[in-house]
Amino acid sequence: MFDRNKNKPSAEPPAPEPVAAPRASAATTTPNPAASGGIAIIGPSINIKGTVTGGEDLMILGKVEGTIDLSGHEVFIGQSGRVVADIKASRIEIEGEVTGDVNGIEKVVIAHSGKLRGNIVAPRVTLEDGAVFKGVIDMETNNTRGSQETSKAEQGVLAASSSTSLGTGPKQSQF
User: Is the pTM of this model over 0.90?
Assistant: First the structure.
């Protein structure tokens, strides 16, 4: 009996059947690379000029000039990455150098080796110790923009200007 089982697996051609089935399923899943969790990599020796868009996360180790728009995905700029572009992505992490405005839908992180010259718009921002940043940070979300409520900073400015106009002298800011 053991001889028959040994002969059956070696005599059976199961290899072609599994190969044919994955090809058919791979063809049906190929149009949606985001579901596979793929990451596109721009290597250290690659230079790109123009607009970068796509349907997966992006790791930049080379040079990119222009615009990067990956709204539903993450962008990671490695230590060797050099970007001169406006970036819009769900999450942006910078370990290299970026010159341009950065719009993180969820979060922007500038690592200790990262350098950013440009403005940041994101609800959450992390600047690690040693990070270099020159620009303006706007952490207002779309929900709070245009609301009738004024922020504490705006209230402080209003209070300072109103007390100055009343002749009580300038008020020192707590910032």
Answer: no
